[in-house]
Amino acid sequence: MNIPFATDTPLAYNYVILLASGNEDGGKRATLAFSTACSAAAMDMTTHVFLVGDGSFWAYEGHTHGIHAPGFPPLEELVSNYLELGGQLYICSACDQVCSLLPDQDHLPTKRAGVELRGLASVLHYTVNGTSITF
User: Fold this and answer.
1) Residue 110 half-sphere exposure, CB side, CA atoms within 13 Å?
2) Among candidates 92, 95, 86, which has minimal Cα distance to 40?
3) Which InterPro entries does UniProt cross-reference here (predicted)?
């Protein structure tokens, strides 16, 4: 199958990936989001991943371990590669407190290295001169 590639899209664009899904699907949407993010970052596109709502689950150490969707590298590897490629990883500041706990936790776990707190206004700021996709 020959899949066309849009070569006329300016690389100066901001590519915003919103990950609003937690572990309810076994990490499939998170895997797709970070696979997309790695591809964009590897192409030297300015890439921002925002963890919002239940997607904020992925901002914490250990939450990506053991997640491996068929046909993709493990999620931990995708997230690490994305950060190594210079991708930006943000967690919604409100979601950090509200959506990040597992049912049996009474305190927030440790954020993984490379995760920054940002308000939702940052999403708007980056999408004004770019495009977004939601998982």
Assistant:
1) 5
2) 86
3) DsrEFH-like, Sulphur_relay_DsrE/F-like
- Length of the chain, in residues: 135
C-alpha span between 23 and 86 (Å, rounded): 25
Q: 19 and 52 in contact (C-beta within 8 Å)?
A: yes
Phi and psi torsions of 130, nearest 5°: -170, -155
CA 90, CA 135: separation in Å to the nearest integer? Answer: 15
At the top level of CATH, the class of 14-134 is alpha beta
Instruction: For residues 47 and 132, give the distance between their C-alpha atoms in angstroms, rounded to a whole number.
Output: 10
Per-residue pLDDT 10s for the chain (135 aa) are 444 444 444 555 789 999 999 999 999 999 999 999 999 999 999 999 999 999 999 999 999 999 999 999 999 999 999 999 999 999 998 888 776 566 666 676 889 999 999 988 888 888 888 889 999
| Residues sharing a CB contact under 8 Å with residue 110, sequence separation 6 or more, in sequence order | 60, 61
Asked whether the beta carbons of 131 and 16 are under 8 A apart, the reply is yes
